[in-house]
Amino acid sequence: MQSTLATPRVARWLVISIAIISMFIIALWTAATPGHLHGKADAVGYAVCHRIAERSFEAYGVQLPLCARCTGIYLGVMTGLFVYVASGRGRAMRLPPLKIAGVFAVFVGILAVDGINSYLHLFPGFENGLYEPNNTLRLITGIYTGLAMITLVLPIFNNTVWHRDDNRRVLENWQELAGLLLVTTLVLIATLTRRPIILLVFGLISAAGVVVILTMINSVMVITIFRLERRYRNLQEMWWPLLSGAALTFILIGVIDFLRFSITGTWDGFTFPTAYWSF
């Protein structure tokens, strides 16, 4: 069977130009960020997370790249992606049944309540809130919301990318949901042991999760712009949309990093000194 060309409507010179520019952007971001792996993960976290020290975990005396809640969210994204791929649903194109989708909606709702309550505790006069927030709750609500995020994004990515239909759902039934939640809960329990090596590894994985899901979204955008939907049989064929999607991701991260540093003047997390609030 003849292989589908990865670029049937895009001139070769344009593909090569996009690839060169994308590699330059990624190399520039790599060179501009701290040389060690944790420093680059911090640069990713700085773009998407408040990184308040009190609301973040530490490993070996160093704050993780993301706060406890964001660590949970993107750890959930990576856990869900791993489970879907390992179970053979990596190319599934359909969302879960409505009842199962409702479970994920509940997860997101719980995170919203916990997030609002946690946010209110930053302001004088609202310290009591609904209940006392803590990093354990932030991690728990985050990791299950991360599952909801990847469960939505993966079918959208698959519907845009793959030439062959895989009309299965990413989750077909309650048993598969239970299996996904079991694996995720095991990851959660391992994180809550707060062993430094586990926190360090999971912290880096969560930062990678930011890059992975943004690259998936940006690759979909690139493929849609060039009208190349449903033309790919494997990841090798879609190398340049993935590469350009990654470049767009690092442009976004770099721009947000630059703007945030320009405004705050610090690479540390946000601070909310009570002297700033008169009410």
Specify the biggest β-sheet.
2 strands, antiparallel
Radius of gyration: 20 Å
Q: Calculate the mean pLDDT score and round it.
A: 90
* Number of separate strands: 2
What is the total domain count? 1
Give the overall shape, derived from the CA principal axes.
Answer: globular
Per DSSP, the total helix count is 8
Range of helix content: 55-70%
Task: Write down the secondary-structure element order.
Answer: HHEEHHHHHH
Strand order, largest beta sheet: 1-2
Q: Estimate what percentage of residues fall within beta strands.
A: under 5%
CA(first)-CA(last) distance: 71 Å
Uncertain segments: 1-7, 274-279
- Output the structural class: mainly alpha
Structure in words:
By secondary structure, this protein is an all-alpha fold. The protein has one domain (about 65-265). About 65% of the residues lie in helices and about 0% in strands. It has helices at about 10-30, 35-50, 70-85, 100-120, 135-160, 175-190, 195-225, 240-265, and strands spanning about 60, 60-65. The chain has a two-stranded antiparallel ribbon with strand order 1-2. Helix 3 (about 70-85) crosses helix 5 (about 135-160), helix 5 (about 135-160) packs across helix 6 (about 175-190) and helix 5 (about 135-160) runs parallel beside helix 7 (about 195-225). The radius of gyration is 20 Å and the shape is globular. The protein starts with 11 loop residues before the first helix and ends in a 15-residue tail after the last helix.
Q: Can you give keywords for this protein?
A:
279 residues; disordered C terminus; mainly alpha; two-stranded antiparallel sheet; disordered N terminus; 8 helices; 2 strands
